[in-house]
Design brief:
Blueprint lengths: L8 H13 L26 H35 L19 E11 L12 E11 L6 E11 L6 E10 L5 E8 L8 E5 L6 E5 L16 E7 L4 E3 L4 E10 L13 E7 L11
């Protein structure tokens, strides 16, 4: 910080008037005695004009000295006001946000129940692969937003399964809080939950009455059962949870037909559920 000496507009106008008219109001500083001529005896030629001229010179000189003194005093006062030391300090903040990133990183191996049959068979086949990669911010870890499971040459009472992982590729913990199944995928089945089973599972059936609700008394045929090692809860950064999907083809399955299912797994940051979301 540098001290500054300033000249205000009021002082500048006062100085200008004094220089123009030879007057300066000095009452605020106590006044100045500019002196007066002293009368005395003088014999000789009348030199009044000369004395008056000398007197005018002394007055002008005295006024100039008074003006200079007043200006110095004024500038000293102004300079004193601005000489008070001061300083400014600051607070700067940087908030480095974390990242939220949820996905799959591995799938497989897959297997089926054919080796356990008598005699063992090798007819059906189940495979999996990952799709829709995403590079997580901050960690540069690659996760995948979609897991494909492909079962070929299936038949009734075929069981097939694939292992996979649920991964936290971000920098903050996440919480897996909900699994959802698409009800109608256009394959002729209606998908829903058996919530009374332990553990619960998803099944696809033919909705014969069109009600959208499974009715066991109407013998609505169940074609597929889909099981998971259900997981709800926290996954820490750079950690994963092992899981498995198992598909069971039931007796009412049609020959030469393709069935499609789609399941969504939801996660959010691990801290308590915000009030606007309510209970799930």
């Amino acid at each position: 910080m540098h001290s500054r000496l300033c000249l205000g507009a009021r002082l500048a106008r006062a100085v200008a008037r004094a220089l123009t008219y030879g007057t300066l109001n000095t009452s605020w500083s106590g006044g100045l005695n500019l002196g007066a001529p002293v009368k005395g005896s003088y014999e000789g030629p009348d030199d009044s004009p000369q004395r008056e001229k000398e007197s005018d010179k002394r007055k002008m000189k005295t006024k100039a000295m008074a003006l200079f003194a007043t200006l110095m005093i004024t500038l000293s006062v102004v300079g004193l006001v601005y000489a008070h030391w001061s300083d400014v300090i600051r607070i700067n903040g940087v908030i480095d946000m974390g990242s939220f990133c949820f996905g799959f990183t591995t799938c497989g191996p897959c297997g089926d129940n054919e080796p356990t049959k008598t005699p063992p068979k090798d007819v059906g086949n189940i495979t999996c692969w990952l799709d829709e990669p995403e590079v997580c911010a901050h960690t540069n870890k690659t996760v995948y937003n979609k897991l494909w499971v492909n079962l070929t040459n299936g038949y009734p009472e075929y069981f097939g399964w694939c292992n996979f992982t649920l991964d936290n590729g971000g920098t903050i913990p996440l919480d897996v809080y909900m699994w959802c199944v698409v009800i109608n995928t256009g394959d002729g089945l209606t998908y829903t939950w058996n919530r009374t089973a332990d553990p619960p599972f998803i099944f696809g059936y033919y909705d014969l009455d069109g009600s959208g609700t499974y009715n066991a008394t109407d013998s609505e045929p169940v074609v597929l059962n889909i099981y998971f090692d259900w997981y709800f809860g926290q996954i820490d950064p750079c950690q994963s949870i092992n899981n498995r999907i198992t598909i069971h083809i039931k007796e009412p399955a049609l020959m030469c037909h393709d069935y499609h299912f789609e399941i969504f797994i939801h996660a959010w940051q691990w801290d308590p559920v915000p009030p606007e979301f309510g209970e799930v």
